[in-house]
């Protein structure tokens, strides 16, 4: 179920079914979930915050971190800044 809104509404039901459908046919590798994305400009945070963010992401992605950096850079080239990157929304083949 998605947060917010009336989970019994037809619109909510349709959205949930659509997302469930796409998740059932997607095969890794893929990027999913743009809820935390920012458009057009990288958010301004102190350097320490960015350093902590990168350390956390390196730990989360382990050996995949170089590929994740390439994915994030590709999105940034088109003006999309993914702040909530995690192994649940950037997946790789096992």
Structural summary, described in words:
With 94 residues, the protein is mainly alpha-helical. It has a domain at 28-91. The protein is 47% helix and 11% strand. It is built from 3 helices and 4 strands. The chain has helices spanning 10-25, 47-61, 65-77; strands at 30-31, 37-39, 80-82, 90-91. The strands form 2 sheets. A two-stranded antiparallel ribbon has the order 1-4. It has a two-stranded antiparallel sheet with strand order 2-3. The protein is globular and about 45 Å long. The two termini are 27 Å apart.
The backbone outline, from C-alpha atoms, is globular
Write down how many β-strands occur, each being a DSSP E stretch of 2 or more residues. 4
What's the average pLDDT? Answer: 80
Rg for CA atoms: 16 Å
Unreliable runs: none
Strand content bin:
5-15%
SS-based structural class? mainly alpha
Q: Helix share of residues?
A: 40-55%
**C-alpha termini separation:** 27 Å
Tell me the major beta sheet: 2 strands, antiparallel
As laid out across the biggest beta sheet, the strand order is: 1-4
Order of helices and strands: HEEHHEE
The gist of it:
The protein is mainly α and 94 residues long. The chain has three helices and four strands.
List the helices and strands and how they pair.
Layout: H1 10-25, E1 30-31, E2 37-39, H2 47-61, H3 65-77, E3 80-82, E4 90-91
Antiparallel strand pairs: 1-4, 2-3
Keyword list:
94 residues; 47% helix; single chain; 4 strands; two-stranded antiparallel sheet; mainly alpha
């Amino acid at each position: 179920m998605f947060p917010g809104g009336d989970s019994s509404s037809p619109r909510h039901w349709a959205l949930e079914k659509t997302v469930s459908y796409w998740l059932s046919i997607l095969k890794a590798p893929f990027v999913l979930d743009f809820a935390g994305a920012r458009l057009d400009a990288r958010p301004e945070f102190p350097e320490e915050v960015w350093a902590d963010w990168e350390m956390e992401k390196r730990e989360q992605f382990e050996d995949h971190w170089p590929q994740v950096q390439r994915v994030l850079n590709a999105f940034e080239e088109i003006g999309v800044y993914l702040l909530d990157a995690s192994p649940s929304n950037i997946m790789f083949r096992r």
